[in-house]
UniProtKB/TrEMBL annotation:
It comes from Streptomyces pacificus. This is Uncharacterized protein. The chain crosses the membrane at residues 38-58, 70-88, 127-145, 157-178, 187-207, 213-232, 378-399, 411-428, 455-473, 479-498. Keywords: Membrane, Transmembrane, Transmembrane helix. It comes from the Bacteria. Signal peptide: none annotated.
Length: 515
């Protein structure tokens, strides 16, 4: 036996894994230094143009969430910890730390190595990065939104940093837990997190005196240690075929994202509709009405339907509170948050948004009357969203009636204008097809090439329209002026959305097909 063969036989699993990763890292199609430098450059420009001014305005204005004592800060810390952990679990279900490049994962699966040997190192490294990123994000948000860092001489600052460390550790482990554990085990963890957060919040406001934040920092840290040991022990039994499917989908989503079609990447992670197929058809064989079809299609994806209901109801309540709030700054904040929530929820109501886009962009084979297409595909969103927002707004208005009893008509007009604007912005977003080539042309300015900013704005154009429109509406001196602004932006969104799909040309073909 030669020396090379003896070395290959005696090499341990760790050395074999490192050899494979070393060879794969030196492949010919890997990212170059120029590619990484351009990504860093675009990120720096975005931070300078968008993030820095917003952060400066938020920091120099009145504190949004004042935290003057540990007793007041403990419930806020518990709420943030629960939200971050739940978000990490949900992210892990779709894109967890074990997702690798499909070819690299295929090579590892084809060997006799235990999954712990090639998944453990990458999981540990990514969990460290995720924990540090969560720590920095929580600290930055605390610095911008609260006044915790304005009390350097007290114990609030070290306690707040300890809470951020605990949240970062627990969130990173929950990210791994969400990927390798079943749905039932994730629901149990989410329920346990809710119960623990409620218990710590109650103790911090009642029994404990000044040590509530330390308890809010210690519970996530201990939970991360216990949960992490259990999660890493489960690596040897990970579902490799499911992991291969996740890696393939992630690679395709990355390709879409890097080529400027982020909406296609997000579409890959939409759950497939299941069940209730026969409900779409009446007993006599005819299709049900437009509203019934939209409702059934929404119920075929129950997770999205529940999320849509939660966002729409929350958005309706926040919109009503924004209209009834006497303080202008608090009203603008509540109004903006409510509009964003309605925007997100309206996209999860049903599949008819994307159905309209597909029908407008594909050739009309049977010469269907063009006017029936929007009625069939947009009837359900146009009815479900205002009804859900109206129910939540009406229930909230009952508690705020003394504040808005003097201007009920104006309040109704402002809320209706906001909802119509949000629906038009969602229509604009869903009519998006491929990235226009002209957006890639260089835009030379003293700051450099800003074409990347145009692509970024195009990716999130619906959300940008909502934010700009709501800020413009809140600055109008009268409700009629705000309604006119909302109608103007709505008309522009509808025109731009139809223009993206070449609707005039397709409508002409449809008429020719009927001749």
């Amino acid at each position: 036996m030669t020396t090379d063969s003896t070395t290959a036989v005696e090499a341990g699993p760790g050395a074999r894994v490192r050899a494979v990763r070393h060879r794969y890292a030196r492949r010919g199609d890997r990212a170059t230094v120029q590619d990484r430098a351009y990504t860093v450059y675009v990120a720096a420009i975005l931070a300078l143009v968008y993030v820095a001014p917003v952060a400066y305005l938020v920091r120099t204005s009145q504190t949004l969430v004042p935290l003057d004592s540990s007793r007041a800060a403990t419930p806020v810390a518990c709420l943030v910890a629960a939200a971050v952990v739940w978000g990490a679990q949900l992210t892990g279900r779709y894109w967890g730390p074990l997702v690798l490049k499909p070819f690299l994962l295929h090579v590892f699966i084809s060997t006799d190595l235990c999954p712990t040997h090639y998944l453990g190192p990458i999981a540990r490294r990514r969990l460290v990065y995720a924990g540090l990123g969560t720590l920095l994000t929580v600290c930055t948000a605390t610095f911008l939104v609260t006044d915790l860092f304005d009390h350097p001489g007290t114990a609030l600052l070290p306690q707040g940093v300890g809470v951020a460390v605990g949240i970062g550790a627990f969130a990173s482990v929950a990210w791994l837990w969400g990927q390798i554990r079943t749905v039932r085990e994730n629901l149990l963890l989410a329920a346990a997190v809710a119960a623990a957060a409620a218990a710590v919040a109650l103790l911090g406001r009642s029994a404990l005196d000044g040590s509530g934040l330390w308890l809010a920092a210690g519970v996530p840290a201990v939970s991360a240690t216990v949960l992490g040991r259990s999660a890493f022990r489960s690596l040897r039994t990970v579902d490799l075929p499911r992991l291969a499917r996740q890696s393939a989908r992630a690679a395709e989503a990355q390709t879409f994202a890097w080529t400027g079609t982020l909406h296609h990447a997000l579409d890959l992670y939409r759950p497939e509709p299941r069940g209730l197929t026969s409900v779409l058809v009446r007993p006599d064989g005819r299709l049900r009405g437009h509203l019934a079809q939209g409702a059934v299609r929404a119920l075929r994806a129950p997770g999205r339907a529940v999320a849509a209901g939660a966002f729409l109801l929350t958005g309706g309540a926040l919109l009503t509170l924004g209209v009834a709030e006497p303080d202008a700054r608090a009203a603008t904040l509540s109004w903006t948050a409510g509009s964003v929530a309605v925007y997100w929820g309206s996209g999860w109501v049903g599949e008819s948004w994307r159905g309209l886009r597909d029908e407008l962009t594909l050739a009309p084979l049977f010469g269907e009357r063009w006017g029936g297409m929007p009625a069939r595909t947009l009837a359900w969103p146009a009815v479900a969203v205002p009804v859900a927002v109206g129910l939540a707004g009406g229930a909230t208005a009952l508690t705020q009636w003394p504040l808005q009893s003097g201007r009920p008509v104006e309040a109704l007009l402002l809320a209706a204008g906001s909802v119509v604007l949000v629906l038009a912005a969602r229509f604009l977003r869903e009519m998006k097809t491929n990235l226009p080539i002209e957006l890639l042309l260089p835009v030379i300015t003293p700051l450099g090439d800003l074409s990347g900013l145009r692509v970024f704005v195009w990716q999130f154009d619906g959300l940008v329209v909502v934010l700009i429109g709501i800020l413009a509406i809140t600055q109008m001196p009268s409700a009629s002026g705000a309604a006119l602004v909302a109608l103007g932006l709505t008309a522009w969104c509808l025109w731009a959305g139809l223009r993206r799909t070449g609707w005039a040309r397709l409508a002409l073909f449809s008429r020719l097909g009927r001749v």
